[in-house]
Amino acid sequence: MWQRRGWHLLLAVASGTWAWAQLTAGDQAQLAEALRLASSGHLREAETALVELETAHPHDIGIRYRLGLVLLRQDKLEAAGRELELVAKSNPSSPLMW
User: Fold this and answer.
1) pLDDT by residue (tens digit) across 29-83?
2) How many Cβ atoms sit within 10 Å of the Cβ of residue 75?
3) How far apart are CA 3 and CA 15, in angstroms?
4) I want to staple 71 with a disulfide (CB 3.0 to 4.6 A). Which of 56, 76, 81, 91 is the partner?
């Protein structure tokens, strides 16, 4: 059970508004919906929404980070590793890495 609570905490931490500043209102709503889906266990739907956002905003590390977490939660370890590694390489001092 602690892992599930930890997952929700991780999503809550990752949902900070700092990454949303560059997104349109529609993209912000889609990101919020993806986070809601992920936190309620609808991981495939969350993944789909995050992939769409990542395609539109390939340099947004917040979206990549969240996608990595959703992939990790689905045990898609290789894909999650690729996303999280890109986040780490693009900004190693990011608070998302610590």
Assistant:
1) 999 999 999 999 999 999 999 999 999 999 898 999 999 999 999 999 999 999 9
2) 7
3) 18
4) 76
Of 39, 89, 44, 30, nearest to 65 by C-alpha is 89
CA-to-CA distance for 95 and 47, rounded, in angstroms? 22
Alpha helices in the chain (DSSP H): 2-14, 25-39, 43-56, 61-73, 77-90
Nearest to 62, CA basis, from 89, 31, 26, 29: 31
Q: What is the pLDDT of residue 91?
A: 81
Asked if 31 and 11 count as a contact pair (C-beta separation under 8 A), the reply is no
The CB density around residue 64, as the number of other CB atoms within 10 Å, is 24
| Segment (H or E) for 20 | none
Cβ atoms within 10 Å, residue 74: 15
Distance, CA of 42 to CA of 48 (rounded, Å): 10
